Amino acid sequence: MQIQQTIQGFNFDKNSTFEKDIDPKQRAWIEVSGKALESNVRQLRSKLSKSCQFMAVVKADGYGHDAKVVAEYAIKGGASQLGVATLKEGIKLRSSGIKKPILILGNLYTKRDLIISFKNDLMPTISSLRECLICNNIGNHFGLRFPLHLKVDTGMSRLGFEYNKFVQQFEKIKSFENISIEGIYSHLSSADDKNSSEAKSSSQLQRKKFEELLNQINIDRNHNIKIHLANSAGMLLNKDFHFHMVRVGLSMYGYSPISTIHKNLSLNPALFLKVKVAFIRIIDKGVSVSYGGKFVSSRKTKLAVLSIGYADGVPRKLSGKINVMHNSKLYPQVGSITMDQMMVDITGSNDIKIGSTMLLLGSDGDKTISPVDWARESNTIPWEIICSFKNRLPRVQVD
Ligand SMILES: *Cc1c(COP(=O)(O)O)cnc(C)c1O
User: Fold this and answer.
1) How many CB atoms lie within 10 A of CB 355?
2) For residue 124, which of 101, 146, 110, 104 has the smallest C-alpha distance?
3) Ligand 1 midpoint to CA 146 (Å)
4) For the whole prediction, is pTM greater than 0.90?
5) How does pLDDT run across 100-132, given as a tens digit for each residue?
6) How far is ligand 1, taken at its centre, from the CA of residue 96, in Å?
7) Ligand 1 center to 58 CA (angstroms)
8) In sequence order, what DSSP letters do the residues of 194-247 get, joined into one string?
9) Res 6: pLDDT
10) pLDDT, tens digit (0-9, with 9 covering 90-100), for 251-285
11) Strand 102-104 to 288-289 pairing
12) DSSP string, 15-31
């Protein structure tokens, strides 16, 4: 009887693999809260002056949240520009109907890539005269101006014009008639430093260098050229860093880039990592669990086997160091995290069954497990945790 009912839901096309019939919440998945994103952007924007724009940084598929969803809700919250890392990320946003200005934060250095960028209405970041000239030629070919942002290096030694040569090179750039300089920016190297006085002093030094340069090139500050410097941490450091626009990633997703708590700021995590209990077993005292037998039960133990592992992006380094939540209660993960599964000690619980959902990251009631906690335990940064989740985890938008 029951089997028949279940079967009735299927389309019995004999060529079908029924792949589409698999529930995205069948194994392990990421829930993305659009509302959390929107309210985070709104809150962060309230810290900016009215004229200061908010660029939502949605590189790496929106820090693993799904760039399209993040872009939509960030725009609802008041973001007026978007930042991506690659040409493909930019094109994907354009094809999903996003109309706001998009800046590519990575470096495009071939004529081919720059043409593709131009044709998709994406602004490249320009770090040298060579690429600037290519853009000018492309603009000239189409009889238009190629919109772009210039970047200067003030201490990161990554992309950007060489600091000491920029003023002289800018003279030349000013004569290019087929480019349109939409922005001039730089990037902070240490605004999120654990040592907050170090973060402040090194960031202030970069800010001063940046301002000196802007004074020297003597651009009309009221002109349309957007000046920008701050990432999340820089934005939260001080208003001095805001200029015409801030480029915000991490804090928009709900996490503070610095350990100091910000007054009047309550960010909500937008990511919920959830997993199904695939199996439950009871082991005696003295029984080893998982590869290498690194965990041995000290009592009769009830174990839940969860369908998620390091191939989904949960760092193996976290083996035995994290808790998993169910109905606001925490249960310790035990034994080595394996490629596709991990075990949790659920001794004493009676509400966890095969098919129950457990929470690895996110909030439930007044408890939260944050990527910041995982980062601390695995000696990395929260940015790396959230952008490591693989495509094997479906992204499900929840509100
Ligand atoms: C990634 C990135 C940002 C955003 O940084 P967060 O610390 O996540 O806010 C800003 N600017 C540039 C150039 C970036 O590459």
Assistant:
1) 9
2) 104
3) 24
4) yes
5) 999 999 999 999 999 999 999 999 999 999 999
6) 22
7) 9
8) SSHHHHHHHHHHHHHHHHHHHHHHT--TTSSPEEE---HHHHHH-GGG-TTEEE
9) 55
10) 999 999 986 656 678 899 999 999 999 999 999 99
11) unpaired
12) T---GGGS-TTSSEEEE
Q: Map 67-109 to HEC letters.
A: HHHHHHHHHHHCCCEEEECCHHHHHHHHHCCCCCCEEECCCCC
Most ligand 1 atoms within 8 A of CB, residue of 59, 247, 250 to mutate = 247
CATH second-level architecture of 271-397? Answer: Beta Barrel (2.40)
CB atoms within 10 A of CB 321: 15
pLDDT tens figures, 172-218: 999 999 999 999 999 999 999 988 898 999 999 999 999 999 999 98
Atom of ligand 1 nearest to the CA of 252: 9
Nearest-CA residue for ligand 1 atom 6 is: 249
Average pLDDT on 222-236 reads: 91
Q: To test ligand 1's pocket by mutation, which of 127, 159, 231 has the most ligand atoms within 8 angstroms of CB?
A: 231
Domain locations along the chain: 34-254, 271-397
Q: pLDDT tens across 315-369, in order?
A: 999 999 999 999 999 999 999 999 999 999 999 999 999 999 999 999 999 999 9
- Distance, CA 249 to ligand 1 centroid (Å)? 6
Q: What tens digit of pLDDT does each residue of 333-347 get?
A: 999 999 999 999 999
Looking from the CA of residue 251, the nearest atom of ligand 1 is 9
Ligand 1 binding site (Cβ under 6 Å of any ligand atom): 57, 59, 105, 187, 231-233, 247-250, 257
* Token couple for 12: 């019995």
The atom of ligand 1 lying closest to the CA of 191 is 7
Distance CA 131, CA 140 (A): 14
Decide which of 3.20.20.10, 3.40.30.10, 3.20.20.80, 3.40.1190.20 is the CATH code for 34-254: 3.20.20.10
